[in-house]
Structure formats: C-alpha cells, structure tokens
Amino acid sequence: MTQSHAKQPAVKQAVLITGASSGIGLSLAKHYVANGYLVFACGRNEARLNTITGAVALAFDINDKQQIQQAAQTLSEKLVAANAKLQQVILNAGSCEYIENPMRFDGALFERVIQTNVIAMGYCLEHFLPLVDTNGRVALMSSSATYLPFPKAEAYGASKAAVNYLASSLRLDLKAFGIGVSVICPGFVKTPLTDKNDFAMPMQITADEAANTIFNELKTGKNEIHFPKRFTYILKCLSCLPSALINKMLAPKVS
C-alpha cells in the first residue's frame, strides 16, 4: 500500500519593479499582474503604489541605502511567505534633467542625475541581486539617447551610457550564476517625465505599448530591448555616420 503525499503548492513567479508609481513602471506593474506574476511595485509614494490592484507595495527611496537594505529584507520575507521565486528585477526608476547653458555647466544637476540613474542602481543591485533566482533576469533602464549625442543631454546621456556599460559587463559576470541581464533603450514614451519636454518627440508611444514590448522581450531573454523599432533603427543607422557629420547635423545653430 503506497502512502499518499500532500500536493506541494506551486511556486509563484515574482518580479520587482522600481519606479512603479507612474509611467513605464506603473504600466509594467499592471502588465505583470495581469499575466499572473507576484509583483513587488516599488517607489517613494506608497499611496500611489497601493492603487495598483494585485501588486505588493514596497515603498523606499532608491537614493537611500538604508531604505533599500530594509526593502530587500522585507522582500526576502515576503517571497518566503508567498512561496515565490524572484524571477525578474526591473530597475526602471530614474530622472532626466538638461544642461541648459554649457558655459555655466551645472555640476549639482549633473551629480543629481548620475546619482539617481547610476549610483542608486548600484545600491539596488547590491541588495536585490542576491535574491534573484537561478535562471532569473535583471533589466536595467537605459535610453535610445545613448545611440547619438544630443544637445543639453550631457548629464542624462552620460548616465544612460554608464547603464549600458554596466549591463554589458554585469552580463558577463552573471553568466556563471545563470542570471541574464537586459538593457532597455526606449525611444520617446509618453510619461510624466517626457511631458516636461519642450521639443518634438517623434514616433512617441504610450507607456502601455512600452510595457508590452518590455514584457515580451524579457520573456524571450533579449539582451538589448529597444523600441519603437522604426525610431531606434534610424538612430542606430545615423550613429554609423562620421562624427563630424553627426556634429553638423545635431549641434544647435548659433544665432
């Protein structure tokens, strides 16, 4: 007579998303919830995070190392309680500010952007990466602005170029641990951040369209996710031109 064994509960797939209170992060959180993931929605505004039906709010400031450490401890406990494995970490949170006058270079602005877009990402990797399951994936938010130099984008472009290199190097080192690394390079996406721009944003797409692309391409393990393709391929082609020609095309006209 064989002894019956209690059926083990299924292990849930979990994803952590920073910057989930608005824009691409919010759309991603909703998209992952709709696809059955246990979603840890992260940001500073806990009230906004709590409005994401089906997600678990994890409120912290990405520029505060102690808050990130505490959030990671809470995340670890919640994963165990939910019988879940952290399959994806999407470090989406970031900022964008422009250098308006290069002859009065704003060093404090430059520091703020680098801090939020690069240094804070390092804090998050320190505390969340050890929780990622084998065969999991980490995604770092960059920008298609890295394909070409753009006026006033010294701080923003430099920060995202650093993210690209970070992703490429981290991908090599994490291969031995079975963890993939993706870099996400969007074109213009309608978000509260881009709503502040006072220049033309060709081929702009919605945050929901961006989230759908990111979700599908992370699922297939893409190392570089760029969209909308009709826009990003134009930038990639232009980047192959001689630098002198690129400078002539993109440099602001002197009045």
Structure description:
This protein is an alpha/beta fold and 255 residues long. The protein contains eight helices and nine strands. It has helices at 23-34, 46-49, 65-81, 107-128, 154-174, 207-219, 229-238, 243-250; strands at residues 12-17, 38-43, 56-59, 84-91, 132-141, 180-186, 189-190, 205-206, 224-227. A seven-stranded parallel beta sheet has the order 3-2-1-4-5-6-9, sandwiched between helices. Strands 7-8 form a two-stranded parallel sheet. Helix 1 (23-34) packs across helix 6 (207-219), helix 3 (65-81) runs parallel beside helix 4 and helix 4 (107-128) runs parallel beside helix 5 (154-174). The radius of gyration is 20 Å and the shape is globular. The mean pLDDT is 93.
Number of helices: 8
**What fold name stands as the CATH topology?**
Rossmann fold
CATH class: Alpha Beta
Helix content: 40-55%
Largest sheet strand order: 3-2-1-4-5-6-9
**Terminus-to-terminus distance:** 92 Å
What's the CATH architecture? 3-Layer(aba) Sandwich
Task: Domain count, please report it.
Answer: 1
- The CATH superfamily turns out to be NAD(P)-binding Rossmann-like Domain
